[in-house]
Write a structure and sequence with these properties.
With about 325 residues, the protein is an alpha/beta fold. The protein has 2 domains: about 5-80, Arc Repressor Mutant, subunit A (Orthogonal Bundle), CATH 1.10.10.10; about 90-320, D-Maltodextrin-Binding Protein, domain 2 (3-Layer(aba) Sandwich), CATH 3.40.190. The protein is built from 10 helices and 12 strands. It has helices at about 5-20, 20-30, 30-45, 60-80, 105-120, 135-140, 185-190, 205-215, 225-235, 280-295; strands at about 50-55, 55-60, 95-100, 125-130, 145-150, 160-165, 170-175, 195, 220-225, 240-245, 255-260, 265-275. The strands form 3 sheets. The chain has a 5-stranded mixed sheet with strand order 4-3-5-12-6, with helices on one face. It has a 5-stranded mixed sheet with strand order 9-8-10-7-11. The two termini are about 55 Å apart.
Length: about 325
């Protein structure tokens, strides 16, 4: 089956609106003969006369009357698609954005982001969903508009990424814990009882590898699937939780923190999205809001982290588990 000439839709719309070959020709800036030839093509394509002679004028056939509204909508939609993007009116924007975030992002950045969005675009709603893995399929199929996290090998090559901030892992203990006082050393850290965050079920992580390089091994007595669970256990016991500093700032309220006394590379938390949304004005605006909020809330986490010997690397890879 041959592909129809979609330009004929514009011609048909003009003919059905004007009800005259001459007036339709003037509307489209064509000669009457060119419009007559176009009408002949339309009759061949549709298998219907469309406009027939009645006295000195033309009247639409039942088929033409049936098509008139549909053709008008199609032409209007086509013009809207091909028209340059209009300036975004945030006050009139009605939209729900889905953000897939790492644990701790909502608690630390969510309130400021929601307040910013509410001030600028009161009709916008944010839906936060948890991030159980790094599969980029939800971004690709449109279930997720934005994602935050560390770029990994599982991420699709087409996904756009922009760095938001750097983070590092620290130790967190309850207020009054013995490790909240005195000089922190690798030996003191390793001698404690630890809770390990492991989404993949591994019983060791990069911290254990770092301790082995200095001849030490820590005792892990509990394994959990998220940082909030690890901090909840540490807050009500003598366990030590090792967590990302900025992502857990709110979750660590009233707890003591300290830089890890072993080398562990920093991580870069990025904003991720699918390239089909690059040029979408509303999506661009939201990306800017997230960047601004993450930048505005960037304050020295050491204010709540006891100072001590800290080994900080420059790698952007996330400590895998």
């Amino acid at each position: 089956m041959s592909t129809p000439d979609l330009n004929l839709l514009v011609t048909l719309d003009a003919l059905l609106v004007e009800g005259s070959v001459a007036r339709a020709a003037r509307r489209l800036r064509l000669s009457p003969s060119a419009m007559s030839r176009a009408l002949a093509r339309l009759r061949d394509t549709t298998g219907d006369p469309l406009l027939v002679r009645a006295g000195r004028g033309l009247v639409p056939t039942p088929r033409a009357l049936e098509l008139r509204a549909r053709v008008g909508h199609l032409v209007e939609d086509a013009h809207a698609v091909l028209r340059p993007v209009e300036e975004l009116d945030l006050e009139q924007l009605i939209r729900t954005f889905t953000l897939r975030t790492s644990e701790g992002f909502v608690e630390n950045f969510g309130p400021d982001l929601i307040a910013r969005v509410g001030r600028e675009a009161p009709g916008v709603r944010l839906r936060f969903v948890s991030k159980g893995d790094k599969d980029s399929t939800p971004l690709r199929d449109g279930r997720v508009d934005l994602e935050t996290g560390v770029v990994g090998t599982e991420m699709g090559p087409e996904v756009r990424a922009q760095g938001l901030f750097r983070d590092r892992f620290i130790g967190a203990v309850r207020s009054g814990h013995p490790l909240s006082r005195g000089k922190m050393t690798a030996a003191r850290y390793a001698a404690g009882r630890h809770v390990l965050v492991s989404r993949r079920g591994r019983d060791e992580g990069p911290i254990d590898d770092a301790l082995k390089t200095v001849g030490l091994q820590r005792t892990i007595v509990a394994l959990v699937g998220g940082f909030s669970a690890a901090l909840a256990l540490a807050r009500s016991s003598d366990l030590i939780a090792s967590v990302p500093e900025r992502h857990t700032a709110t979750l660590r309220a009233e707890m003591s923190g300290f830089p890890l006394p072993v080398f562990l590379p920093e991580i870069t938390v990025s904003l991720l999205w699918h390239p089909r949304l690059d040029a979408d004005p509303a999506h661009r605006w939201l990306r800017g809001c997230v960047r601004d909020v993450c930048g505005a809330t960037h304050r020295s986490s050491s204010a709540g982290t006891r100072r001590g010997g800290s080994h900080r690397g420059r790698s952007t890879g996330r400590p895998g588990r």
